[in-house]
Amino acid sequence: MKKIKWIALMLVVLLSFGSGVASAESVYSMTWNNNPNPATYTGNQWSGTAGGWFWDLGTEGLFQFSRLTDSVTYRLATEVSHEGNVTTIKMRDDAKYSDGEPITAKDIWGFYQLHRETVTNYLKEIRIVDDYTLEFEFLDPAPFEDMRIWLISTSRQAGCPYHIYGKWIDRAAELWEMAPDAEPGVVTPYGKDMTGEEISQMWTENWNEMAQFVPEGKIMVSSGPYVQSALSESELIMVKNPNYWNADNVKFDKIISKVVTPEQGIAMLKSAQTDCYPGSLPIDVAESVLAANDDIVFYPTVDPACHGLYFNFKSENAPMHDKTFRKAINYLIDKTPCREVGNYYGQEFRYSCTGIPPMFLEKYVSQEVLDKMEIYDYNPQKAEEMLLEAGYTKQNGKWHDPEGKQITIKIGVNGSWQPAAVVGNVNAIVGEQLNAFGIDTEVLVTEGTIYPTKVKEGEFDMTFDWIDVAWSFAYPLFPLRDLYISDYARNNMQLDVDEDTNNPIYEGLTDFNGDPIDPVQVLLDMPSMESEEERLAWAEKLVWVANEECFGINLYQNCTGIWENRAHTQGLPYEDQIDANNQFMPVPDIDDPELEKIAALNWGFAGYNKLFFLEPTESNK
Fold first, then answer.
1. What HEC string does 395-459 produce?
2. Is the pLDDT of residue 7 over 90?
3. Are 219 and 43 in contact (CB under 8 A)?
4. Which contiguous run of DSSP H or E holds residue 151?
5. CA 558 to CA 581: how far, in whole Å?
6. pLDDT at residue 120 above 90?
7. What would the pLDDT profile of 591-611 be if each residue is shown by its tens digit?
């Protein structure tokens, strides 16, 4: 029987070569929910219907940044220089779109005319020098040089095919010219005011007209390594873009993205019907997956983002305005059971919140300052002593504030946060601990569409959310800005806002030297500070203030991960360590030489980069 099968196989091989039939395509398959809706997809990347992998694998910009490692890879850019407020970027001259048209400086310029990316808040204008050279002129005072590239690389800057969308790009450029200058101190793209009714209406009309355009065949023109092939309700297929400038270094001929439920994805993982599955799984499920298939490897990956609780400073039920009370709550919460339920692989920290992911503290904060930071280890007795000393009382087993009012707490939880059941259980543990201490606490899991409004309106006394997060770069300026200035934190903490600048107001804060400090002004000034030493000195103060003021409770750092199928893929990190008895890879620290590759395995970190080091196995060619 085996001999017959072997002969049949040889006949197939010989016939394939003899008839000139091409060998099988190498395929990389993954389970994800990041596909366009086939019912609304038009092929226009600006229509709002062409996201997902059509965007992620079909577009390429000047740079590619890697979340977690803060590295920047040159893509369309080849050379960068700085002179005063002007940053000049030269582009490769051999890049083409999937339709064969060259990718030029005008396409990148066009993107920034249409899109109000963060970097445009720092720009005066972008100029086309020649077909492959751009000048980015920054407003005065200009950001320090590294930050300029960071800002450009974190914007999508994928290029907007001018040969297709030129008339709408030109109209957008006209409107920027027409717009009056913004008021001093107001941060807007190109320093312009687009809020006027007439110009705002013209902008909307231009955008809507462009968004309704349907390209021929509903095909999105790609600048990246892959181009669309097929789309169904359950599957998206992309094939290698033959015109891509770096096509020789993209090893997989086809990418298949399948839309599945978590249960379906886990089943496919066990049977190796997929080559990639995103995220971590409960430890018992993870172990069952690895036991089911020797080819599956799990790479847990530290996520520069934490889960925790913010305090509503304007709470009417609890004295959240009182720093002593907030500190007591930090000492009161035992984080270990929260972490074990919320993210088994996560990491607990001994701080309240720090503004930046605590994993980066030793990188950016000196030991001298770390030694000054208060440690909030689990200590209910200390919490009780602090409250009693501050005038709080316990009557009939219930805590009352110094005015004699009984303290109650409502914890808000977004019921649409996946997995909502896990998030609810984490907060149930927090609620149980507060109730046991004598503070009546209710956990309110709220439907996701109305949850943000309820947070903004201050309906909760504490809110469960992301805290100490580096959504882009971990360099302190970026996460600290998210904590102190963003609407996100402002709404959770219910901060007052300056009507002229729309920035939150902090009053009475001092640094570890006892000097007054305004976090907003520091962060607005930091981009133009020329000295790295000065920038980090201010960052240290803001980290200390966040921990001292106890804006929230960092329960644990998230740990995500990625699952890979080595039956179809080679070139994986730690490859020499993988065998049937060792499929659960270690969580890398920030000094691990394999961290760059592990981060790249995660599509949300820098998954684009995996295309240039992963290769198909011999059985997948």
1. ECCEEECCCCCECEEEEEEECCCCCHHHHHHHHHHHHHHHHHHCCEEEEEEECCCCHHHHHHCCC
2. no
3. yes
4. helix 145-154
5. 26
6. yes
7. 899 999 999 999 888 888 998
3-state secondary structure labels for all residues of 324-387: HHHHHHHHHCCHHHHHHHHCCCCECCCCCCCCCCHHHHHHHCCHHHHCCCCCCCCCHHHHHHHH
Answer for the pair 240, 225: CB distance below 8 angstroms, yes or no.
yes
DSSP code per residue over 223-249: -SSEEEEEE-SSEEEEEE-TT-TTGGG
d(CA 413, CA 522): 32
Q: How far is CA 560 from CA 25, 216, 370, 466, in A?
A: 31, 40, 27, 14
Q: Which helix (H) or strand (E) holds 105?
A: helix 105-114
- 3-class state of residue 465 by DSSP: strand
User: How many whole angstroms separate alpha carbon 497 and alpha carbon 499?
Assistant: 6
DSSP 153-205: HHS------HHHHHHHHHHHHHHHHHSPBPPTT---GGGB---SHHHHHHHHH
Q: Which of 31-45, 126-140, 247-261, 308-322 has the lowest mean pLDDT?
A: 31-45
Neighbours of 98 (CB within 10 A): 20
Rounded to whole angstroms, the Cα distance separating 164 from 42 reads: 14
Residue 239, φ and ψ in degrees, nearest 5: -120, 160
Read off the tokens for 480.
Answer: 């600290």
Contact by Cβ (8 Å): 351, 555: no
Burial class of 621 by CB neighbour count within 10 A (0 to 12, 13 to 18, 19+): middle
